[in-house]
């Protein structure tokens, strides 16, 4: 009897632990987004003078944010390539590869010589490594979300799918803490000389920890079922573009608004408030950190509410709120009153969390398991290019040309309205 029971246990599939898988997705995603966000903070603070010293400070900031945008151009490449193999080979292996890719590129940036040492090769190498970062994070989101959602119970898919979503503010919080600690304890000269490298080099330790965690989780049951039924598609991306192009377009459009607002919130505001409004860098980093904590806390709550009440009312409420935030954010920021700035960031963070929490499960539910990695990744990454990928660069260019934040406000309001319409359309199709 004992022998039979032991044999049965050995042959049975491993027990699925949704919370363990979701937590592993959160930790790995937070590490990857830490890597991604420290670049944005460095672009706002040091990359201009170190890698583009021959131009004016404003042009240097614009150039550094342009290199920031290069990572977004690479994200669909990562999403397509890793989506292809994620739909054919497995979700888990692609998550390991994406984390390694991101980690190696990030450490490489920390080792780069500056313009003063190697001249024009410095920005060329910076752009190259930023492109590699984009490939890594482009393959990360789809795999992490699918691992969490596909392991989850049917009535809690949005909640578990929010765990990798929490990795985004989690990575931002970690990046802000590291930069805040360095800028507080180092002189401006020391930070510009060597201190900025520390966050990039520290990534090596976190990537190793993330790899250990990711290697312990089981493969997605949905993908295992696809393998068992031998229903894999030879070219998943081709199938998506042929059969699901509407879903890709709608999901990309739904994501543009929150991504644009998010990257203004996470990257551009630091540059604008410190260089134009001449506010304290540490003050803005602290405010961003507090708002990011609120964003992190709202995400799982909004996702759980979505499981109970439905995605449509939650996502529409959050999207309408984001339109309001887009219209009011810079008028409030321009008061240069710290309490009002903090309030604006906190309200924006709340509505970002309301949208960002349920949207992962929404995207994954638009595609069949055979092409889900490719389809969800493509929609998300195209939206990221049209949203956050160009938002800091557009905002910098608009302010440089007009010396006013009104054009930035009009731009943000426009893209959030586009997203509101797409959210209305895509939730109407899937409810």
What would you note in describing this structure?
The structure is a single chain. The protein has helices at 2-11, 18-45, 47-51, 57-88, 91-110, 115-118, 121-151, 157-185, 188-195, 197-214, 221-229, 236-243, 245-275, 281-309, 311-333, 338-364, 372-389, 391-402, 406-430. With 431 residues, it is an all-alpha fold. The chain has one domain (21-430): MFS general substrate transporter like domains (Growth Hormone, Chain: A, Up-down Bundle), CATH 1.20.1250.20.
CATH architecture call: Up-down Bundle
Q: Report the average pLDDT across residues.
A: 86
Q: What shape does the CA trace take?
A: globular
Which bin fits the share of residues in helices? over 70%
Class from secondary-structure proportions: mainly alpha
Main sheet specs:
none
Quick summary of this structure?
With 431 residues, the chain is mainly alpha-helical.
Keywords:
single chain; 431 residues; mainly alpha; Growth Hormone, Chain: A; globular
């Amino acid at each position: 009897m004992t022998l039979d029971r032991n044999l049965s246990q050995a042959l049975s599939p491993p027990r699925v632990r949704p919370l363990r898988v979701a937590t592993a997705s959160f930790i790995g995603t937070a590490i990857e987004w830490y890597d991604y966000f420290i670049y944005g903070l460095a672009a706002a603070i040091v990359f201009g003078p170190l890698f583009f010293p021959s131009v004016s400070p404003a042009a240097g900031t614009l150039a550094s944010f342009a290199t920031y945008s290069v990572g977004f151009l690479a994200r669909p490449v990562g999403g397509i390539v890793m989506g292809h193999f994620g739909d054919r080979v497995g979700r888990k292996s692609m998550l390991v590869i994406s984390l390694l890719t991101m980690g190696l590129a990030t450490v490489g940036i920390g080792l780069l010589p500056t313009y003063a040492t190697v001249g024009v090769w410095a920005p060329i190498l910076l752009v190259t490594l930023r492109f590699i970062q984009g490939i890594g994070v482009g393959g990360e989101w789809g795999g992490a979300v699918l691992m969490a959602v596909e392991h989850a119970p049917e009535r809690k898919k949005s909640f578990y799918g929010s765990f990798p979503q929490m990795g985004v503010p989690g990575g931002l919080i970690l990046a802000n803490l590291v930069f805040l600690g360095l800028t507080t304890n180092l002189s401006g000269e020391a930070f510009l000389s060597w201190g900025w490298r520390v966050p990039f080099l520290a990534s090596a330790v976190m990537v190793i920890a993330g790899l250990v965690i990711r290697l312990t989780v089981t493969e997605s049951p949905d993908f295992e079922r696809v393998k068992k039924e031998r229903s894999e598609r030879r070219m998943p991306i081709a199938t998506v573009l042929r059969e699901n192009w509407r879903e890709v377009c709608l999901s990309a459009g739904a994501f543009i608004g929150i991504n644009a607002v998010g990257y203004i919130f996470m990257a551009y505001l630091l540059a604008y408030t410190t260089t134009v409004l001449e506010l304290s860098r540490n003050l803005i980093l602290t405010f961003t950190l507090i708002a990011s904590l609120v964003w992190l806390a709202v995400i799982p709550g909004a996702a759980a509410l979505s499981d109970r009440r439905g995605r449509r009312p939650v996502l529409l409420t959050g999207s309408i709120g984001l339109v309001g935030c887009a219209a009011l954010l810079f008028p409030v920021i321009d008061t240069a009153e710290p309490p009002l700035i903090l309030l604006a960031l906190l309200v924006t963070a709340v509505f970002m969390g309301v949208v960002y929490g349920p949207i992962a499960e929404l995207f994954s539910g638009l595609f069949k398991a055979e092409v889900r990695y490719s389809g969800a990744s493509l929609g998300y990454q195209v939206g990221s290019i049209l949203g956050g990928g160009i938002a800091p660069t557009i905002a910098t260019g608009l302010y440089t040309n007009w010396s006013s934040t009104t054009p930035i406000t009009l731009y943000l309001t426009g893209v959030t309205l586009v997203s509101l319409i797409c959210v209305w359309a895509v939730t109407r199709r899937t409810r």
